[in-house]
Records
---
Amino acid sequence: MKFYLPFWWPDGINTHFDPFLETVPHKEKVRIWNIYNPPPLDGILVSRVNVESKPPENDDIHTALDFKGSIMGDCGAFSYIDEAEPPYDPIDTLEFYEKYGFDIGVTVDHLIVPKYDNEKEYRQELTIKNAKKMFDVWKNKETKLKLLGVVQGWNANSYATAALELAEYGFDYIALGGLVREPTENIKKILEMVHAILQTNSQEKGVQTKIHLFGIARESLFATMKHTGIHSFDSAGSLRNAWLSAKKNYYLDNVPYCAIRIPRPKDLRGKKKKFVEEHEISKDLLVKLEKKALANIRAFQKQEITLDEVLTALKEYTSVFTPPKQTDQIINEYQRTLNARPWELCDCSLCKKIGIDIIFFRMHERNMRRGFHNVYDFYNHFKKWEQNYLPSKKNEKENQQLKLV
Ligand SMILES: [Zn+2]
């Protein structure tokens, strides 16, 4: 199975960042595929909205991103989920993919979500209609672009029927969308049913239909994905959890750890900022406790002080911008992270270079490095899983429980 990483323009780091001085000398942006060799991915997924918000100087997307591997383009359906219809014309989108030299172009789809339940049939039909429109023009072109037909649905049956409709129309690569928030058991049912119906169609026609799964990279689904013939999938979860998740920010062998939040006082926002203002915490005190927390955690890294000492300093700083109960909860998480010292066990070049700094939740440069590390960890974990996978049907149960050694 091939893993695609969704990509946004700000997803880069400056290799000259100094974690001690916290300086970023110039505007260099290095992407994850420039850091790790080989890159921990099989391709990237770039949205049209992303490209057009900041059009690259070079029209060729591979040159613009300095990436030679497979690049998939889509329209970023989440960005227009509340619109009556997608803001992109299907034929214009096809031209967009060709202009930038994408390898794979995703048809223009419209997500089906519970709040627009009364529109589900309309959104599914619109998605199918757009796919067929693009297919009609694409099939007569001489192009290296592969067309990936999207299917939207609301249960196993509706996904399977729509997938069959596109396969019968001629699509040999079909994507299942809108499953990101779906419970694992439901996704399993959908994959089984889509697989069964496409299998019958493939046998009749002698053409194997490939399937892409949008936005899903759950280990609990790997075995089902594998035996239902999923060809590719994408997920931004491991990257973005580095700074978006409340507790799961750093992964080692797919086990999550909470990052240590030592924000710069000037970066305090929202509830934290309000808490500071309400309790009339002075700027001097914030700076003093922040410096103490940083000094202590670095001393802990060098094993000069105990875990209790560093936790006390972290608690002192955290408690001036966090309510007491939440402070206790997060300090428990810090204790778990610091006890395990996972950053010392990772062999990736970013962890090796900045050490404990990779688990500080502080500034874009560290948070993005942690995200890159997470993708590296996910990809290696996934590849090891795949190597250990036992393909026969009778081993399905074992495969579902298959854990890495
Ligand atoms: Zn690492």
---
Amino acid sequence: MIEDKLITDTDLDPFLSGEDLADKTKALLLQQKAVWPLCSKGYNSLDGVEVRNFEFDGFNIKVQFNPGRIVSSAAKVDDKSIKERKCFLCFNHLPEEQKGILYKNNYLILCNPFPIFNEHFTLPNVEHLPQLIDDSFSVFLDFSRDLGKYYTIFYNGPKCGASAPDHLHFQAGNKFFMPIDSEYDNVVSTLGLPLIEGKNLRVSAVDGYLRKFISIESENKYKIIKAFDVLYSILEKISSKGEEPMMNILSFYENNKWRVVIFPRSRHRPSYYFAEGDENILLSPAGVDMGGTLITPLEKDFNKITKEQVIDIFRQVTLSTEFFEYLKKSLKEEITST
Ligand SMILES: [Zn+2]
């Protein structure tokens, strides 16, 4: 029964500092840290996390050494491995202490016990449905609005970072943790090519930021959805047949406006991931990495990774120049600002 997994008001009340969903979400983490040892251990371990910073022209890339993330970075996500493991996002498999908040009757807000952010949540559907953005993009935007006071929401495609590609879910983490959250305006004004500058809709393409992206900004949810649908169908044309186009998506909500950043991907894991010996770097880029915080679960990789390798990792997983040019041209022709 899903009801058994929902936190009660009585349990949440002592931790509440406000009334809206973002406040309740924040309170949920405080409650879970108090009653669930694995969760408090995960967040305590963030104190030992080390960070390196690489400076580029007008932006930064952070590298975070986070041993707790080994489970996710090294996750086997092939069909066979997925079928053989017990799905950790199905509510009936959750640990006894783990409780969540029900959202729109079909999603749960859960604390991620293996955090990257100081506050890190997983937002799974209550059903075991495949990870696909096409039909869930609207809820993704709702989450972004309703949790936007504190959190950025992100989506990892089934073949580019989701460690549960068989169970539909999003994630949420503190705003301004990923460098892109604070760099965005400057990056778009210096490197961005405006594709659409309409009344209440701006679509931009950014190259020169190591990873290429398309952004969609509007106060109107339906304009965002319309523009995303066009982007999705263009990406489908340059993707493997029958599969979701590879992408990571971040959504930042502020002043009643969404800012959705889509990173189209060309591959899941860079060559370093599969290299033998000294060449090997266990780094499996997902949304947070594309947002500018690279996660290395192994200390040897954290210590040795170079600026050139950072550049090369992004070059390998981002969309090729040829496809990006095609994408920009098609978007400009097909999206209307009305
Ligand atoms: Zn599941």
